[in-house]
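Database export, one record per block. Field names are fixed; values are copied verbatim from the stored entry.
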Amino acid sequence: MKAATFAPGSYIFKEGDLSQEAYRIIKGRVELTTTGDSKPVILAQLGEGDIFGEMAMIDERPRSACARCLELTECEIMDPQDFQTTLLSQPARSIPYLSALFERLRSVTNRLHHEISLKAQIQEAALENAPQHDRTPISSTSSHRSQNRMQTDTIQDTAISTVILTPLTPTCSSKMPDGYEAMQLAKFPFCIGRKTHSAHHQPEIFSANDFAIADTLPFQVSRNHCSIEREGDRYFVRDRGSTLGTIVNGIPLGVKSERLTHDLVPGTNELVVGSKHSPYIFQIDLL
């Protein structure tokens, strides 16, 4: 396995490139973008310890995004052969890459499950409301458009430069990292979940969180609960398949709700991690 240093503003790879390496940031920051109508759309802003490009080791497809360095950045580089060798001879070093792959799989599975559920609901409602002689199955295209109308939120018009996460309850404050009364988020997605302990204090394979909440029974916080994400100028919260769901500005999210994501608005937002009875209530300020 090798490492490389990239200059500020340089591209590690570009959308459409054919390459199979995955990267772990040792130091520095990387921005992932894709091509929009008139300008690049920001998908993620990553920092130390984050992994990107991992799917290229598996699917051998062209890159779906660009990776550009925001500052002087050093990365560990792993190709498919490195990954196989490391998995067999140094399994602990492969854990961050496995966690990244599991997180990607979890996200795709949750989205697919939710899309199938929504399409079924839309088709059922259309059949119930249509006259008897017109009761034909709704087309997948119409279903997809209706689903988009249900799920799409208003994109922000105001430029956001700062995102701050602040606890709103004493229980919530007690779970913050030592010395933190609030956190200014410097990377997106910013993943939140339950703190877990593996045997012999080994790194956790099945969860990858930037903020791990030490919840206690009966749990409100799932191991992989929710994330604060950015897509272009849009900031939103995504439920990551949690058991009890997530509430954003009063709107429930989750696999049992009508949506998995909800947009954040400029100014003050409320995030409840868990059910409406959860003590884990945060304020998200977009400034």
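Remark 1: Residues 134-155 have pLDDT under 50 and may be disordered.
Remark 2: Residues 106 and 240 are 7 Å apart (CA to CA).
End of record.
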